Amino acid sequence: MNNQSIAEMLRQALMNQRAVPQISKTETQFSLKDAREVQDLSCILAQEAGENLAGYKMGLTSKAKQRDVNVYEPIRGYILKSFEIPKGGTVKMGARIHPRVEPEVAVVLNRELKGPGVTLRDVVSALEGIYPALEIVDSRYENFVFKLEDVIADNTSAAGFMVGRVNLLSELNDLNLMGICVRKNGAIVETGAPSAVLGDPLLSVVSLANSLAEEAKSILPGMVILTGGITQSVPFKRNDRIEVEWPQEVLSFTAE
Ligand code: OOG
Ligand code: MG
C-alpha cells in the first residue's frame, strides 16, 4: 500500500470506528519518515473534508504513558476542532472503538512560536493560558497495540479533548506539583501531578515547536496544545462517568 492509501484507510477507521491491523505488520519497510508522511496526509484529508485544525498534541511524554503502550519516545500529532468535547457533556461510544481518557495540561500561546531553537524561556514569554484538560485516545489499531511508526501514522491515537475554563497562568510556579486525580464512577483510578510530563509540561511545548520546525510548521496563537498524559490512560465504557479533578476545576463527562 502506498502512504496515501494508508492515510485513507486510517481516516476511514476513525470515521467508521473500525479497527485495522497494524501497518508495520503488513508493510515491513514502513519507516518513521513514511509514518510522518501518513500523518500529514491524513491531516490534509481531514481538512479537505471540511475539518479545521484546533492545534497540536504531544504524546508519550510521561513514563506512565510510555509504559502504558510500550513505546518509549515522545510523539506529536494534530487535533481537529471536531474532536472537542463540551465541558460536562457526553461522549458517544457509538463514535469510538476502544477509547481511553487521560489527564493533561493544555497550553495556549499569544504569539507564533517557530523553531528551531525554541527554548523554555520563549514558551514562558508567549503564554496566554494554561488549562486543566483531558484527552481521549482511541487507537485505530486492533487491541490498542502498535509500534512507534504505527502510532505516528495513526495521528497518535488522537480522538477527543476537553479544555477547562480556569486559567492557571497566575499559579505557574505551583503548576508542576498540583495534585490531580481521575475518577471513574466516583472511585479514584489514577493520581498524579503535571511534573510527570518531562519534569515540566512547558518543556513539551518546547519539543513540539522544535519538532514542527522540521516540517517548516509553527505553533500559532490561539491553538490548543495538549502536552501529554500525566498518568496512565483509563479505559471507559457506556454509562461510565469520568471526572478529572484539579484543585481549581473538575472536568467531567458521561459515556453514552
Ligand atoms: C498514544 C498517544 C499518547 C499521550 O498523551 O501520551 C498520548 C496512545 O496512548 O494511544 O496521547
Ligand atoms: Mg494524550
Q: Could you list some keywords that capture this structure?
A:
seven-stranded mixed sheet, five-stranded mixed sheet, binds magnesium ion, globular, 256 residues, binds 2-oxoadipic acid
Describe this protein's structure.
With 256 residues, the chain is α+β, with helices and mostly antiparallel strands. The protein has a single domain (3-255), classed as Fumarylacetoacetate hydrolase, domain 2 (Alpha-Beta Complex). Helices cover 26% and strands 27% of the residues. The chain is built from seven helices and twelve strands. The protein has helices spanning 3-16, 23-26, 32-48, 63-69, 120-125, 148-153, 201-213, and strands at 53-59, 75-80, 90-91, 100-109, 127-137, 158-163, 180-184, 187-192, 224-226, 234-235, 241-245, 250-255. Strands 1, 2, 4, 5, 6, 9 and 10 form a seven-stranded mixed beta sheet that branches. The chain has a five-stranded mixed beta sheet with strand order 3-12-11-7-8, with no helix packed on it. The radius of gyration is 17 Å and the shape is globular. The structure holds 2-oxoadipic acid and magnesium ion (MG). Residues 57, 59, 102, 104, 135, 137, 226, 228-229 line the site of magnesium ion (MG). Residues 57, 59, 102, 104, 135, 137, 226, 228-229 line the site of magnesium ion.
